[in-house]
Write a structure and sequence with these properties.
About 40% of the residues lie in helices and about 15% in strands. By secondary structure, the chain is an alpha/beta fold. Strands 3-2-1-4-5-7-6 form a seven-stranded mixed sheet, sandwiched between helices. Helix 2 runs parallel beside helix 3, helix 2 (about 30-45) crosses helix 7 and helix 5 crosses helix 6.
Length: about 220
């Protein structure tokens, strides 16, 4: 047992930690939600994480993206994630993929088997393609819905077809019905977002709260396997 996981073992035992260490998780999108998911999974003891993002950090990310720093502005998010893991969870093997997930890159990204997939993509088209791919590969997936324009969020895990008040979830329900997907675990806010025009506003804690709820779901699901 690594000393850094002493408190984790007190909660889930050595057998539980061994399960997490033997798990491989794909995190697609390393922004506000996905960056938090990546870091929390690494700290939790996940043995391997494939981190996928085709974007670089910008100064405007500092208010909410946990992997963002002044020093790594301009750095690919996937590369920054791998460096972060070296600093906080050297046990974790990170496969950093500096690319956007889309239909054209899916085969490369799914060239290996995953125990769980964290969908933290903004693009509806790419999000849909990833979920359909996971369904085809029979890999469990949980998808992040909206976290913008929320000042007092109450995130929870639910089925996308049971959610309400989330614009992204509404669009995704239509896309998933068309694709023949009948169920999808999502992280949704139970409160209605504040109405704002243009680019959504975001406060530091909101996307990270969503990311923590997603991580909790993934870790507990892996422990139940």
């Amino acid at each position: 047992m690594l000393e850094s996981h002493d408190r984790t073992v007190k909660l889930i035992g050595n057998d539980g930690l061994a399960k997490l260490a033997a798990s491989s998780v794909l995190v697609v999108g390393l922004g506000g939600v996905g960056g938090c998911v990546f870091e929390m999974l690494a700290r939790a003891g996940i043995g391997k994480i494939t981190a996928v993002d085709g974007d670089v950090f910008e100064i405007t990310n500092l208010n909410r993206q946990i992997l963002s720093t002044v020093a790594n502005a301009g750095t690919p998010k996937a590369i920054a994630a791998a460096k972060r893991a070296e600093e906080i969870a050297p046990h974790c093997v990170v496969n950093a993929m500096f690319m956007r997930y889309c239909e054209q890159t899916a085969d490369e990204i799914f060239s290996e088997r995953y125990d769980y997939v964290a969908d933290c993509i903004d693009s509806v088209a790419d999000k849909t393609d990833l979920i359909v791919r996971c369904n085809k590969e029979n890999v469990p997936v949980i998808s992040a819905m909206g976290s913008g324009n929320r000042l007092k969020p109450r995130f929870t895990v639910t089925d996308v077809f049971s959610s309400s008040g989330d614009g992204l979830a509404r669009v995704m329900r239509k896309r998933l019905r068309e694709a023949g997907i009948k169920s999808l675990a999502v992280v949704c806010d139970t409160e209605l977002p504040l109405k704002r025009d243009g680019t959504p506003g975001t406060v530091s804690y909101a996307p990270n709260m969503s990311g923590c709820v997603m991580t909790q779901h993934i870790v507990t699901e892996l422990l139940c396997k």
